[in-house]
Structure formats: C-alpha cells, structure tokens
What does this fold into?
Amino acid sequence: MTLEEMDKKYVLQTYNRNYVNFKNGQNATLFDENGKDFIDFTSGIGVVSVGHGNAKVANAIYNQVQNITHTSNIFLIEPQAKLAEKMVKLSGFDMAVFFGNSGAEANEGAIKIARKYGQNKFKNKRYKVLTLEYSFHGRTITTLKATGQESFHQNAFSPYPEGFAYKNQIKDIYSAIDDETIGVMIELVQGEGGVQAFDKKEVEELAAFLQKNNLLFIVDEVQTGVFRSGEFLASKFYNIEPDIITLAKGLAGGVPIGAVMTKHKDILTYGDHGSTFGGNFLSTRAGLEVLNILENYHEKGLLRKSIEYFDDKLKKVVENHSDLFLGRTGLGLMRGIQCKDSDIVSKTIKLSFEEGLLVLKAGRNTIRFLPPLTITKNEIDEGFVRFEKALNRLK
Ligand SMILES: *Cc1c(COP(=O)(O)O)cnc(C)c1O
It folds into this structure.
C-alpha cells in the first residue's frame, strides 16, 4: 500500500490533499522524499512563523519534554505564566490570557467571555455577536455560525447556536446592533476571506462607538497576530484597544496552541472555562521561544526589511502581469494578489507547485502569501523566480 492509499483508506477524507511527502525543512525551504526543494510561501497557513526546522525552538522543546510535557492546569505551569507575561507586555494592553489549543477554541473562549460579560453588565442579558461577511472564525459548530459565509452554514450540521449575525461591511454593523447585542468580532485583515485589510478610520470609529456603548470589540488575530502584520498585533496599526483578542496560528511555531486575551479579567472565574491540554509545558515553552526569536527579529528591524523586500517583489510581479492581476493586498507578511478570475488562482497555485513554490488561495480570486517571518532574502528571490516561471507557463 502506498502512503496515498493508506491516507485514503484510514484518514477521514475531509481535505483535498496534495500528495507530496515532505521529509524535512529549513526556514522557508521544504524538501520532499525525492530531495526536491520547495520555497514555502505558506508556512503551514501562517503557523511556522520562525521557519521549518528552527534549531532554537527544537532545542527548547527537546529540553522541555525531556523533563515535563504535561501536568494539567491543576498545577502551576512556569512557561505558561512566562508566555502570558510576554504576550501581555508585547501587546501593550493591560490584559490576561487563557490558553487553549486552536484558533477556533480561542474564539469559543472569546464568545464565552462576551456572553458572560453580557449577563454581568446589563440588566437584560446581551449575547449577540456580530461578525462580517467573508470572515472566518473556525470550524466548531459555534465558530462556524460566527463565520460570515453562508457556505459554512451547511444544513447537515444544524442546528447552530443562536446569537450570531453577520453584516456585509463595517458601516452596516451600527444599524444591526440591538438590545441583545454584546459586541462585534472582526479580523482586521480577513485571511481566508481574501487578505483584505479594513480601513483604519472605519475600524477606529467602530471601536470608539463600541467603547462608548459598553459593547465589546473582539479582534480575531488568529492569523494576523504574532508579528505577521509587522507588529506583535495588527491592532497596533489601528489606533484601537480591543476588549478581547484571540491568537493561535503563529504563536508556537507549529505546536498546537490558541489564546484569548482580555482586559476584562474578572469575567471568567473558577470553573467557568478550562482545557486539558491548553497551555501545557510543551506548547507554552515553544511559544515562549518563538516570541523571544520574533521580538528580537522585530527589534533589530529585520522583520521590517523582509516585509519591504517582499512587498517590492510583489509590486513588480503585479506590474509585470497586469493582464492577470488587479493588484496586491494585505499587510506585513500576510499578502495577497487579486487575480482577474478564480481560474488564474487555481492554475497559478498548481504551476507554482510544479516549479517548486508553495502558495495559497484566499477568497475566490486571491493568491495568498504567508511566508515564515524569518524568510531570507535568497528564499524570497528564489520564490519569486519560480513564481515568474509559473506565470510565464500560464500564458
Ligand atoms: C485559522 C483561523 C481560525 C481557526 O483556527 P483553527 O486553529 O483552525 O481552529 C480562526 N480565525 C482566523 C482568523 C483564522 O485564520
């Protein structure tokens, strides 16, 4: 039996997999079983933020699990406390953190905080959370419902929990707020939806409105967070102070982790929320190492340089192929190229793969780029050489 046959026989077929067998990786380069190399502009969908095979993270994990991997949240977990401290300091907000294992779980935590806040702070309980069209908030039943895309609300999985509604644009949110609404949850740059950054002024006005009315601003930074935008939080680019922030993807370099941070530290109390694995020694030690690396990378201006270099390349490729592309979107190292149609997206992804370059799709007509934040200049150069080859073959 080949591995592909094994996968098809024994793994539930929920993914449309590409059957390449990666064996090892170094930073933004992956090698398959035949030794063929691929430049990775996906970092496992924004997860491997400090690159593949990162020796510092590997050593930190090794040293940790040699001693303790897991004890449960009944006991003090030193790296969990240290990671929470680091996250709060990097955020610049007066917040506290709860750790889970994924982005969806982080958003579930955010919704629980919002609902309890809605009960504690208002005479008539408020519980409705408004989201936006083309958002993506996760795959649990509740976060599917929070996701503002009808295609995710398959009847097969119904009934869905109440208390969610989505609106086309930020400006439509105001009129949708009623006396049951507790807050708004948005991604500042929609990831799955098409790598679109929201207008600064619109976001700031919404934040101010919510604050004035004691309603919650929940920012899903599962994809934009952990320096993906160029700062620890994309919220820094907007002059806002969210009530609740969720993080996951890039936080522990590939070890499963999710986190919800909030300034409303007194809402969840003993017994209100919990997780068996969340925040254990393994994931939080990895997260701490990842943040140490990225903080340093950011402070030295290296991240800024990579972002500028990548943007330069992106700008040129869009200009060179104005017959295929409409423009570039996103910020930091979360970027997109808007294509004239979805056919261009799927063909480009396929041809890029053949040329040894991994890129992603987002929304209907966007090619998405989420390289490791530590990608080198050479890897960027090589990736765009391969991208050009793919585009020239497309024509
Ligand atoms: C990926 C993602 C999620 C879901 O994260 P999982 O770890 O897959 O549960 C939620 N929100 C956003 C913005 C995401 O990009």
Residues 102-104, 107, 136-139, 187, 191-192, 220, 222-223, 248-249 surround pyridoxal-5'-phosphate (CB under 6 Å).
